[in-house]
Amino acid sequence: MTMVEINFDGIIGPSHNYAGLSLGNLASASHAGDLAYPRAAALQGLAKMRHNMALGLVQGFLLPLPRPNTAFLAAIGADGTEDRRLNAAAWSASSMWTANAATVSPAADTADGRCHLTAANLVTMPHRSQEWPDTVKQLRLAFADSAHFAVHDAVPPCFGDEGAANHMRMAASHDAPGLEIFVYGTSGGAFPARQHQEASRAVARLHRLDPARTLFVEQNPEAIAAGAFHNDVVAVANERVLFTHEQAFADPAGTYAAIRDRLPEAEFVVVPAAEVSLADAIQSYLFNAQLLTLPSGEMALVVPSEAIEHSRVRPYLDRMLAGNGPIRTVLPVDVRQSMANGGGPACLRLRVVADPATVDPRFLLDEAKASRIEEIIQREWPESIAPEQVGSALLAERVIAARLLLLDALDLSELA
Ligand code: SUG
What we know:
Blueprint: E1 4-10, H1 26-30, H2 38-54, E2 59-62, H3 70-75, H4 84-91, E3 102-105, E4 115-119, H5 126-129, H6 132-142, E5 149-152, E6 167-170, E7 179-184, H7 197-206, E8 214-218, H8 221-225, E9 235-238, E10 241-245, H9 252-262, E11 267-271, H10 278-284, E12 290-293, E13 299-304, H11 305-308, H12 313-322, E14 327-333, H13 336-339, E15 349-354, H14 367-380, H15 393-409
Parallel strand pairs: 1-2, 4-5, 7-8, 10-11, 13-14
Antiparallel strand pairs: 1-15, 3-4, 6-7, 9-10, 12-13
The structure holds N~2~-(3-carboxypropanoyl)-L-arginine.
């Protein structure tokens, strides 16, 4: 049994558009009304997957959900003509950000020795709240092997849950028992706190985590107010390393001490606000990076191109690399179409530590499959979508057909 980290990226769906649906997500708000390029967006996402595969890492993917979601509109007695925002919600390609699909606890952390996944209810944002029933269907297919996986429905909607975006795991190595860190927000600020502590606690119970190796940490309300609508916009962990902004947590010193108590080998790379402000972090998405352990054992940080182009973040990264810390390489990727909606490299992937042989192989990527996916995106994904096209019957037909062709090519038509 070879336990490795597998990153499941969301293939960016053919209805990708900029509708400004996410309050508190500054990128989504500032790009509202822009012309979107679904084909380029999906190709950028695929290029990121290939980039990481070329590093020698196992890569998986999840499929776009059915859009426009007419069942969502029907459930609220709408046909799409009443309200621009509700209609755009039904068209949203937001399931691309699979860091919000579920929370994952690897087998080494759970009482029954299975990897547990709980779909996230995403209730705070209407356009995201419709994702989970289709997401869970897909997770039940990809992780159908019940000897190794347990897939749970989302927790009840009275408790907001945003999945892995507000969850970190630290461990001596991916396959060792780990410390699971749930980061919740408290409401009361200008922007909604999407992750409720009650949801985090429910997920920890469902996953049968050991309380001695589970932490519940409050996100800094100032970070939420500055636009860090998810913790993964201000911190990322991998194995023994936590890479974090110094203002990520309400009680940073207490958080580091609690981690060190439970994982003595923990290393902290804390970025001072004096070098990179919260605003810089949110603008550049420095922390919305994939912190990866390469086959050589070294750690690499896969950052959005925006981070290395930023006038204060770039010099910080240069100093960090020169400083001989645990992060040895910085690798930029271009995911600009997703970034403009507030989704960096880390938002686009769900991390699962598992033996790849226990995952349904239809969800694992290889070069032949990547070429097949690329060909369909090139041929079928709309080149652009303007806001006023969202709702068009003709475009809906095209978007629906494009997704079905992709499912068919991947032998996944049962998700139709
Ligand atoms: O939930 N954007 C997503 C971005 C999710 C980022 N995920 C993580 N940080 N893990 C969100 O705010 C924008 C859609 C729009 O405005 O049309 C959106 O949903």
